[in-house]
Write a structure and sequence with these properties.
The protein has 103 residues and is mainly α. It folds into two domains: 49 residues, no CATH class; 42 residues, no CATH class. Helices cover 54% and strands 4% of the residues. The chain contains six helices and two strands. The protein has a two-stranded parallel sheet with strand order 1-2.
Length: 103
Amino acid sequence: MIEDSPSPQSLTQARSLRQEADRHVLASALDHQPSCLITGDEALRRRAQRLGIPSIDAPHVIQLLAEVKLIAAAKPHLDQMRQRGYGIPQAVYERILRDVGEL
């Protein structure tokens, strides 16, 4: 594993985030373009979007994997995430399953 510290310039662009870890993640994404963040943190996602960094949350990664047939079905994975406490709102859960034809 390689540890990489974000540049001071990128940290300055990420300074509005409260959590140091979030600032470092966003700054590192800025330093290593092209990047995409996988996070459910809405504040981090909004800030990343304003800086031109795309992001996606984990349930939608499952959706993409199902759509391109890298996994056979989304539902078992989403159900497992929910069982482990990942907060997937019911509406998001149902929309993903509808979109991939599993509901």
